[in-house]
């Protein structure tokens, strides 16, 4: 029988860090993608009506970009 | 520099006799932003277009249709004298019209004949292998003709029903023609339907199919030749007249603009009133121009700008030439309002700075600099040029940061001694110099700065840069607010943020036992908080955490930069450490291909990623603190001539 506490000890901390960093970037990337999907399609729609909305559309689209930047920063801090 | 150009509201009043001369003078000066008049029940009516309007627009339409038929492109030509073009205009236009309409008619005739022949050929082609004159398919009293396709030879099946028939079958296309007696028609069609018979229309024409097709092909070739020679004629007409067309189109456009102008102007029975805007320093010029054009009979006056007007004042940038390319970036967002600070000069500093901080690579800077200079030289378009200038400024900044970071296409230039051994640099003998210890993360600041090794320090440094930038935004917001709503409003709306921040700093210093300011900090923070609620209401409380998230958002300056370095060094790793050591000429070629394509991809990303992120920091974090925008573009009534001169 393997003790659960002993099993934890055998996990490589570096590996866990890498998994954590990967999850931080990956999940926040997905989150940004999901958020930007709706904004982006609406922005393109608005631009089709009025080209001068490009600047505003761009800004609104990249606002959720911050989420993945935070993820990246967290990943850098972990590793 | 930090303000849009000063504008004056000018009103020009005169008798209708001199309206045409006045419009002519205003249009010629290209300075006056005409304000459209809306009928408001004051008794003044919109004017009617000048007498020549109909004729001018008719000619313009005629010319434009010819121009689009000939496919005249906008190109640079020697400037034509206006008087010569005007003198020639009518006769040339008639001549051109006759020549072109002849050609168009002929061309469309030939085109339609070509289509007809094509259709006929398609109809005949199933019969091509059947040597029967097409005439012989029609006009029988006692014979029924079947023509169509079947899936296999029906000869044996038909011969079981009747022996008196004539049949031709083309194996390759499955076409069958069958001549039978009228009385056998029903039986035969039953057989045919078993063989999936599909009727084909028989063209009404005489001659054997093969000769007919040969004839058609010959005629088609002839027509093609005629069309080609017509096209040569058309292109020679185009070459001959394109200068005239460009010049006269410009003149007619100018004339049409002038002729239609009265529909924007308020008129009474005998007078007209032109209302609009002009840069303050040009008012005297306008006054003089109109006076000399009308012998002083028109009255030009400067109106006082009221508060209600400030939203509709057209905005003309007033920036030194070096910062002008950044106006394009401002326009992408929105023009400033009249009483706002025009931040063009501010983003002239911060945008390239952030771009350079993110990219910071000598190799990419040189590639993109060459690219931008090349495009600027090749493309003459007015829309592309400012963007290329922005790119050039950004690359200069990238080059400076590249030298600071010591990076070339993802390779470190200097060698670095770490705990895990020596990381070799690209330049042999160039050693990293240790400067001082960073206060955080036990990291060491060196020259060149190895960004990948001092991540913690860089994250904090970028967040600090962010705080400074955001606070600049608050200061600009304070100035705007003070100008528009007075000191108190500015203090509550924008100053409160600075007080809150001061409170937080003092509190943190006290908490960290650096200075005994914990209590003072909390008090200052609360004062700032109350000011904020007074200034911005509940919204202020909601936005309070944005202080932190905005500053943290600037960590993208290092985060995006690191991702760019990692892509570049991964490309280098694959090319030089995974493929090249395989040995042989194939490995060398493979490594070169991977190196070129990898870095080409990263070069493209190097425009998009740092560009968008640097832009976003301006638009969201910086502009969000003070910028309103939404000013109207100053669009003077006039025309910039390209092809003609007076």
TrEMBL record, chain A:
GO molecular function, one term: proton-transporting ATPase activity, rotational mechanism
CDD domains reported for this sequence: ATP-synt_Vo_Ao_c_TtATPase_like (cd18181)
One cellular component (GO) term of this entry: proton-transporting V-type ATPase, V0 domain
UniProt xrefs under Pfam families: ATP-synt_C (PF00137)
InterPro entries in the cross-refs: ATPase_proteolipid_c-like_dom (IPR002379), ATPase_proteolipid_csu (IPR000245), F/V-ATP_Csub_sf (IPR035921)
Transmembrane segments: 57-78
Domain V-ATPase proteolipid subunit C-like: 19-78
Keywords (A to Z) from UniProt: Ion transport, Membrane, Transmembrane, Transmembrane helix, Transport
Membrane topology: Multi-pass membrane protein
Keyword check for Transmembrane: yes
Highest taxon in the source lineage: Archaea
Location(s), subcellular: Membrane
Family under the similarity heading: Belongs to the V-ATPase proteolipid subunit family.
UniProt-recorded name of the protein: V-type ATP synthase subunit K
Organism: Methanococcoides seepicolus
């Amino acid at each position: 029988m393997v003790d659960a506490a002993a099993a934890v000890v055998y996990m490589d901390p570096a590996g866990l860090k890498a998994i954590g960093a990967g999850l931080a970037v990956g999940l926040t990337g997905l989150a940004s993608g999901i958020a930007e999907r709706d904004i982006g399609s609406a922005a393109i729609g608005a631009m089709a009506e009025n080209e001068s909305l490009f600047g505003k559309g761009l800004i609104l689209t990249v606002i959720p970009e911050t989420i993945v930047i935070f993820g990246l920063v967290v990943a850098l801090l972990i590793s | 520099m930090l303000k849009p150009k000063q504008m004056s509201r000018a009103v020009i009043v005169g008798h209708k006799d001199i309206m045409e001369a006045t419009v002519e003078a205003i249009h010629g000066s290209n300075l006056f932003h005409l304000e459209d008049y809306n009928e408001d029940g004051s008794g003044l009516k919109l004017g009617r277009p000048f007498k020549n309007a109909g004729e001018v627009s008719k000619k313009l339409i005629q010319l434009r249709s010819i121009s689009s038929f000939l496919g005249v492109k906008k190109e640079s030509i020697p400037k034509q004298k206006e008087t010569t073009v005007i003198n020639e205009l009518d006769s040339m236009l008639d001549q051109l019209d006759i020549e072109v309409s002849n050609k168009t008619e002929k061309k469309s005739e030939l085109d339609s004949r070509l289509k007809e022949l094509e259709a006929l050929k398609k109809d005949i082609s199933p019969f091509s292998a059947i040597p029967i004159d097409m005439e012989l398919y029609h006009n029988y009293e006692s014979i029924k003709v079947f023509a169509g396709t079947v899936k296999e030879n029906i000869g044996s099946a038909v011969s079981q029903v009747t022996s008196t028939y004539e049949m031709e079958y083309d194996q390759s296309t499955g076409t069958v023609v069958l001549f039978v007696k009228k009385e056998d028609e029903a039986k035969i069609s039953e057989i045919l339907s078993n063989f999936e018979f599909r009727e084909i229309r028989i063209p009404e024409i005489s001659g054997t199919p093969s000769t007919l097709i040969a004839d058609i092909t010959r005629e088609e070739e002839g027509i093609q030749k005629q069309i080609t020679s017509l096209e040569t004629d058309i292109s020679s007409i185009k070459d001959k007249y394109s200068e005239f067309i460009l010049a006269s189109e410009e003149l007619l456009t100018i004339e049409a603009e002038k002729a239609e102008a009265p529909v924007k102007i308020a008129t009474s029975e005998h007078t007209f009133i032109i209302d609009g805007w002009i840069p303050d320093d040009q008012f005297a010029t306008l006054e003089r121009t109109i006076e000399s054009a009308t012998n002083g009979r028109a009255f030009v006056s400067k109106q006082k700008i009221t508060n209600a007007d400030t939203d509709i004042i057209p905005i003309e940038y007033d920036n030194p030439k070096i910062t002008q390319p950044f106006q394009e970036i401002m326009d992408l967002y929105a023009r400033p309002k009249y009483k706002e600070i025009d931040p063009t000069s501010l983003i002239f500093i911060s945008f390239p700075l952030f771009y350079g901080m993110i990219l910071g690579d000598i190799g990419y800077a040189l590639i993109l600099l060459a690219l931008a200079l090349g495009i600027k030289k090749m493309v003459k378009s007015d829309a592309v040029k400012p963007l290329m200038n922005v790119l050039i400024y950004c690359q200069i900044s990238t080059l400076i940061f590249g030298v600071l970071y010591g990076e070339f296409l993802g390779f470190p230039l200097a060698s670095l001694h770490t705990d895990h051994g020596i990381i070799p640099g690209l330049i042999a003998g160039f050693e990293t110099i240790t400067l001082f210890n960073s206060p955080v993360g036990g990291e060491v600041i060196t020259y060149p700065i190895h960004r990948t090794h001092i991540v913690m320090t860089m994250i904090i440094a970028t967040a600090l840069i962010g705080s400074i930038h955001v606070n600049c935004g608050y200061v600009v917001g304070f100035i705007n607010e003070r100008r528009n709503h007075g000191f108190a409003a500015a203090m509550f709306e924008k100053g409160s943020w600075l007080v809150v921040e001061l409170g937080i700093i003092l509190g943190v210093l006290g908490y960290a036992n650096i200075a005994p300011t914990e209590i003072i900090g909390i008090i200052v923070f609360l004062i700032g908080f109350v000011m904020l609620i007074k200034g911005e209401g509940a919204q202020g409380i909601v936005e309070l955490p944005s202080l932190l998230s905005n500053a943290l958002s600037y960590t993208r300056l290092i985060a995006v930069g690191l991702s760019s370095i990692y892509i570049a060094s991964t490309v280098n790793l694959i090319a030089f450490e995974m493929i090249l050591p395989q040995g042989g000429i194939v490995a060398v070629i493979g490594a070169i291909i991977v190196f070129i394509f990898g870095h080409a991809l990263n070069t493209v990303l190097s425009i998009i990623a740092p560009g968008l992120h640097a832009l976003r920091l301006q638009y969201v974090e910086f502009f969000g603190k003070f910028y309103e925008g939404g000013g109207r573009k100053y669009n003077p009534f006039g025309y910039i001539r390209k092809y003609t001169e007076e």
